Structures are given as structure tokens and as C-alpha cells.
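=== RUN LOG ===
request id: a7f3
mode: sequence -> structure
chains: 1
length: 117
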Amino acid sequence: MIALFVAGASLLGMAVFAMLVRNEPEPAYFRVIGVMVVLLGLAGFGLLRLLPNESGAGAGRLVFSLGLLWLAWIFLLAFVVQALRLRFPQSADWLFLSAGLATLAPVTGMVVALWVV
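=== RESULT ===
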């Protein structure tokens, strides 16, 4: 079950990243991605730290907040790729590959944490 979740999350993360970097970089697009990074990050940390810890909803809240932080990570990677793509247009291929693989970092960390425990 965990392997299926990890595979699905990995594919979903790469698909979201591909949709975010599909368009050419534009200044208005940077603002939208930047605002989403801040909102998703604040929502994820807010759910983790600011809401009271209830015994029954702890696991669901943790998974949801980690999902929001993971989406913030993907949006941040898309922001950096679009900025570098605007500055260095010839480097688009390796940017897409490296940032696409970097979307797997949180999922890989979760797999390692579950495997060690």
C-alpha cells in the first residue's frame, strides 16, 4: 500500500511540475507562482504548528499539511526553473530534468523514514 502511495505521489508531483513549467516565463506568471509558494507554505506550517493538537485528527492533519508543504516545494522549483529559463534560455533541458527529479526529494525522504522505522 505504501509503495502504491509513493508511486502515485511521485507521478502526481512530476505532472504538477510539468504543468507549471509548460508555458514560457512571464512576469505575471512569476507573481502567481510566488504567491502560491508563500500561501501553500504558510498553510502547511500553520496546520502543523498553530492548530491545537487533537488526538483523533493528528494523523490526517499531518498528512494534509505535509502535502501542502510538498506542493509548495514543487511550486518553488517551478519558480526557480522559470526564472533561470528566462535568464538562460539555452539551459532549459537540464533545468527541467534536474528540477523534475528534485520534486521527488520529499517523497524519497518519506520512503527512507518509513523504511528505517
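=== NOTES ===
The radius of gyration is 16 Å.
Residues 58-87 form the longest helix (30 residues).
=== END ===
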